[in-house]
Amino acid sequence: xxxxxxxxxxxxxxxxxxxxxxxxxxxxxxxxxISLSYLFADSPPSSFIGITYMLVTWLSHTSxxxxxxxxxxxFPLSLIFPYPKHIRGMAAVIATVGASLLTLDAYVYxxxxxxxxxxxxxxxxxxxxxxxxxxxxxxxxLAGGIVLLILGFQLVVSNYTWHHxxxxxxxxxxxxxISSLIVCFxxxxxxxxxxxxxxxxxxxxxxxxxxxxxxxxxxxxxxxNDLLDIESYKQAHNVKINNQNISYQMPxxxxxxxxxxxxxxxxxxxxxxKELAAFVANNNNLHKTEQFLQPTNHDDTLFSLVYGLPAxxxxxxxxxxxLPAWQSQRRSVQVEGVKxxxxxxxxxxxxxAIRIIKSSDVSTIKDANTHVFAFSLANxxxxxxxTSALYSSDKRISKVDGLIQPSDLIATSVGQYLxxxxxxxxxxxxxxxxxxxxxxxxxxxxxxxxxxxxxRITLIDSDGNFKNISAAEGFSIEQGLDIxxxxxxxxxxxxxxx
Length: 498
Known about the structure:
Pfam family, one: DUF3413
Transmembrane segments: 21-41, 61-83, 90-110, 137-161, 173-195
Structural class: alpha/beta
Mean pLDDT: 83
Domain Inner membrane protein YejM N-terminal: 7-248
Helix content: 40-55%
Number of domains: 2
InterPro entries: YejM_N
Protein name: Sulfatase
């Protein structure tokens, strides 16, 4: 085929390519505007190099995505089908779809903390469905308006650049802009290589902020959520997930328990399985489940049992001697046999609704109508968490699908038996087992983030390394990080931080 300048086909193709560059240039500006939302979705970098990297990466990476979309779609169409009117219309539609997807991805990232992906599809659908059902008219108008606005922009830009192509070719600023973007692209990758080699987490924690960027590692995920003690890592490679500066913020104002139901709850904690077996032998109306997931650190288990929170908040709460939310509502929790929690009993009384008893003796249940939980502390030290037996006077608890954590026991006691669902939901990360909808949860013990989903438990240790284990059998599972799930779990873990 003759592709000389005198050939009509060649002339049209050349003109369309020139137009395509300006059309892409306009869409780079639109993409930069939309992608600004990613930069404000997370806490900003604290160092100059982190801020510099954020800006140059935003400019270069977003521009590259827009240019790549042009090369893969409009460019080949211009060569194969060089009819200006049709190409300009198709390009406007394609660019509208791309910009709309970028807008949707930005919305998902702002709300969920991760990008569009197949593994995150259930959470994304749930988010969009909740938005649609909560305000259907407004959501439809906003979504439709955004798409129409983008389409209008594309049509205007497409026609303007085509009809003013000769004048646009005379402008020189485009060359400088393209050169600047190329420099930013090279600079961003150079900074990242240097930061990765020198443990500059203020840079590497931004790995997954923009779509189609560097894949997130466990370490960068922890750094992004301020859970990595970076100074210790640099000095001694002995990193502990950072919860030393965490401040516990109790929700305010606290919900009132208007429909309080008078009930008694006894939670018995034994040191050994033998002591637990003796207790069960004396109380034959208890129902068993083997799905009780507890930290092997006894103090962390007991803290979680009393407060309905992971030990992530233990240092802050014990330092301030903050009472459990239920105690502060003058519905007393009485704790027996736990020295570090003795301050709670200062405001307890003989008619405490909930008794948590750590004992090595065969203890006595308050009365026949008392709701009872009983378990023994873990003696295995192979892992941070382990599954064991839980006994309950409530047959429904033994039939709960999935894992049960210590925090779930207090949440169920307050939320279900005492009928204070609002305050349990507002102040605890434990789940009311009567209302459990999914089999996933988060915990924290011995400097390790613990997230579980069905039978798979993911442990992210103090060095940012991760490990998947089976909850039922305890063996290791060879599987990659489920980033959307871990982001969701870490956000939940940090619910009560300031």
